[in-house]
Amino acid sequence: MTDFSATRALFDLPPDLIYLDGNSLGPLPKAAPARMEQAMREEWGAMLIGGWNKAGWMEQPRALGDRIGRLIGAEPGHTVVGDTLSIKVFQALAACVEMRPDRRVILSDTGNFPSDLYMAEGLIRMLGGRHELRLVDPEAVEDAITEELAAILITEVDYRTGRRHDMPRLTAKAHAVGALTIWDLAHSAGALPVEVGRGGADFACGCTYKYLNAGPGAPAFIYVAPRHAGRAVPALSGWLGHRAPFAFEPSYRAGDGIDRMRVGTPPVLALAALDAALDVWDTVDMATLRQESLRLTDRFIAGVEAACPELEVVTPREHDRRGSQVSFRHPEGYAAMQALIARGVVGDFRAPDIMRFGVTPLFIDEADIDRAITIIGAVMNERLYDAPLYRTRSAVT
Amino acid sequence: MTDFSATRALFDLPPDLIYLDGNSLGPLPKAAPARMEQAMREEWGAMLIGGWNKAGWMEQPRALGDRIGRLIGAEPGHTVVGDTLSIKVFQALAACVEMRPDRRVILSDTGNFPSDLYMAEGLIRMLGGRHELRLVDPEAVEDAITEELAAILITEVDYRTGRRHDMPRLTAKAHAVGALTIWDLAHSAGALPVEVGRGGADFACGCTYKYLNAGPGAPAFIYVAPRHAGRAVPALSGWLGHRAPFAFEPSYRAGDGIDRMRVGTPPVLALAALDAALDVWDTVDMATLRQESLRLTDRFIAGVEAACPELEVVTPREHDRRGSQVSFRHPEGYAAMQALIARGVVGDFRAPDIMRFGVTPLFIDEADIDRAITIIGAVMNERLYDAPLYRTRSAVT
User: Fold this and answer.
1) Name one GO cellular component term (chains A, B) (predicted).
2) What is the structure's pLDDT at A93?
3) In the annotation, is A353 catalytic?
């Protein structure tokens, strides 16, 4: 069991703010600045180059990977941290394509996060344009899984709608036709229990700055199923994926298992923040988290619907078909979200008309949900968003 | 002019340590922990998702890129920070190969840092194995520049020997035969004045954790010459290299100029440390730095040679043929370096027999050099390294 009033106390949140955007950028864990200062002063400052050995910097990508691995149901020793999610998607895709040399199609859906699609486009270009990135509607993915496919590249939880794909089902279908699976867990890791191991995922990757709360631009992670760990060829064959990085050999030899998915020097300072963020997660039971997330999102959906019928719920209502965010559609969504933010309810907007709210039990409770509903009701019903101030678009929306 | 006693005061160095390893990992700038705490508490903690706009996180990779750009002679607006050096080398290589579709050879030398070679190997593999990575001895590079080449991939200053290639000369020769140039500045940026613009470099990249002192695993940078900025196709086409990242378009459109070399979400916390590290550099005149570096390295070479004739100098003596490190060869190099470290003289060892010392005027002065010479003399002449303790290899050497 997890005591969520205890986890809430572990975050530094501005007073009077209802932060429903932890699905975009998680808040600051209270312990993170001290952990960072320790990494800077006691490790970097005092140990200097010796930190690679004395502070264990070199091993952190795997150690932290395993702590994330617990949250996503990965077998120990098969998850590693580094780079950005786009880079990790690229590595997974390139490995899949190489493992299915006679197949030419990568399947994804129109709800996938664009960077995943861009990386696939770029890879296909590099491979000579002989492959096809086939995009179908999210609801059509299952039927589109055919023997043409090298791999499916699917984000489990849709960044706009919060709709959740059925990982075990799609994975089983992909395997039945001989295709591999890549699961992007950007909106899953820390949002709900994931079972990459039991679910049969071949590759999975995600970021750590959303539900995992490791800070803006925190590094990504990648999981490779044990059965592929020694076979998946690393596309970005950097020295830290080499079997013996410090032998400085002239030719690349892939490292053991997940190590080969490492590329360059680990981002030690960013890993210190991730370390502190994962300390919070080490106290969390994922089943309890899910229960609380569903209780709060049910309450939020019902409350907002009752308060403002003009907001169309686009997130599926069925529990097993959604993640931990709730999205609504409204033609004035952009201005409405600005008006909400001005009143201390922070969600975000995704073009063309989606208002997104992340519900994160680690620091959001029932009182927050109820207060958010009241404020959303007032902003929508009294058209408080109808002011030029709220219509000015900022650079990053 | 630069006052190096003033810059020295800007670093937090352990007392009684002569740190001659700033060419591997620079020391902690005193201002960095406070800058980091500000980024964590005042930006991430207080602004949360609003930090992307309010704190300008999204623009930092270019702003910091330009501050590095001054140190390497780049035209403003053509350097960007992100990822690791291996990733940036990959991007530069992929762009070159695409710009020279009728050419099949990438030239590098056996003194290059292995990760650069590994990334080239991996790229060639992905491109179908039709290209060749041709390795020649460093001294043979110039003669090996022929019309077969798509690009030369050269690290300006050799990580083991400190030997420096002649960038303008090799670049001119490459251009004369229609080849492009990629300069790895890992051991150049912050070590000596570099002129990528006037020198004609097509692409350049480097890391920020060595001479630039931005911390362990700090992000890399890449420069693309203005004449290629709008034509170089980005190999790793992530969303932040897109022309309109927040339009979430289904297909990739390369961003303007250097922006297209961005891949994923910027590492904001790591950038805060880099920002503080570059504050020191903003006070430094590169010509003065070089003058002082040469004065100190000359003194170091002469002193060590006089004190211990058995240490063979492998760094070229001519000023224009070396960077800011001095390397010696000795069969007992590993143990000798451990013995030196135990006595407060920190350099490092590179297999099979190289003892490396970085001479970094920002925080190393004449008194340090003289004391280091005395200790090196004692360790070598009295064979103080001849103890089992010093022969045990650590994981990271």
Assistant:
1) cytoplasm
2) 98
3) no
Please identify which of the residues A109, A184, A275, A353 carries the catalytic annotation.
A184
Domain-wise residue ranges, chain B = 4-30+285-391, 32-281
Q: If 0-12 CB within 10 Å is exposed, 13-18 middle and 19+ buried, where does residue B295 land?
A: middle
pLDDT band at A396 (very low <50, low <70, confident <90, very high): low
CB B347 within 8 A of CB A243: no
A330: left (phi over 0), alpha (psi -120 to 50) or beta: beta
**Closest by Cα among B266, B236, B314, B210 to B65:** B266
Using CB atoms, pick whichever of B25, B40, B235 lies closest to residue A32.
B40
pLDDT per residue as tens digits for the range A128-160: 999 999 999 999 999 999 999 999 999 999 999
Sheet strands (E) in chain A: 11-12, 18-19, 28-29, 79-82, 105-109, 132-136, 149-155, 180-184, 203-207, 220-224, 312-313, 325-329, 345-346, 348-350, 354-358
Structure tokens at A95: 């490995």
Q: Is B209 annotated as a binding residue?
A: yes
pLDDT recorded at residue B395: 53
Residue B351's pLDDT is 87
Mean pLDDT calculated for residue range B75-85: 98
Inform me whether the C-beta atom of residue B133 falls under 8 Å from chain A C-beta atoms: no
Given a cut of 90, whether residue B72 has pLDDT beyond it is yes
* Alpha carbon distance B97, B92 (integer Å): 9
Q: Tell me the pLDDT tens digit for each residue of A78-112.
A: 999 999 999 999 999 999 999 999 999 999 999 99
**Do residue B36 and residue A269 have CB atoms under 8 angstroms apart?**
yes
Asked, colleague to colleague, whether B4-30+285-391 and B32-281 share their fold, the answer is no
Please, are residues B254 and B231 in contact by the beta-carbon 8 Å criterion?
no
Q: Evaluate whether ipTM surpasses 0.85.
A: yes
The tokens describing A51, both together, are 């930190």
- CA–CA separation, A351 and A397 (whole Å): 9
User: Smallest CA–CA separation between B31 and chain A, in Å?
Assistant: 11
Closest CA to A390 of A328, A331, A337: A337
- Locate all alpha helices (DSSP H) within chain B, ordered by sequence: 4-8, 32-37, 46-47, 51-54, 60-71, 85-99, 114-126, 141-144, 167-176, 196-199, 226-229, 268-281, 286-307, 333-342, 366-381
Residue A121: partners with Cβ closer than 8 Å, 6 or more residues away = A133, B237, B251, B252
- The answer as to CATH 3.90.1150.10 being correct for domain A4-29+285-391 is yes
Q: Is residue B210 predicted with pLDDT exceeding 90?
A: yes
When the pLDDT of each residue in chain A is averaged and rounded to a whole number, the result is 96
Other C-beta atoms within 10 Å of B230: how many? 12
Mean predicted lDDT score pLDDT of chain B: 96
Domain B32-281: which CATH number of 3.20.20.70, 3.40.50.1100, 3.40.640.10, 3.40.1390.20 = 3.40.640.10
Cis peptide before A352, with omega less than 30 degrees from 0? yes
The CATH homologous superfamily to which domain B4-30+285-391 belongs is Aspartate Aminotransferase, domain 1 (3.90.1150.10)
Residue range A226-262, pLDDT digits in tens:
999 999 989 999 999 999 999 999 999 999 999 999 9
Contacts of B129 (CB under 8 A, 6+ apart): none
How is B302-341 classified by DSSP, letter by letter? HHHHHH-TTSEE-S-SSGGGB-SEEEEE-TTHHHHHHHHH
Please say if the pLDDT value at position B332 is more than 70: yes
A116 is annotated as contributing to ligand binding: yes
Q: Which residues of B are catalytic?
A: 113, 184, 209-210, 356
Q: Chain A partners of B84 at a C-beta cutoff of 8 Å?
A: 83, 238, 263-265
Q: What amino acid is encoded at A171 in this protein?
A: T
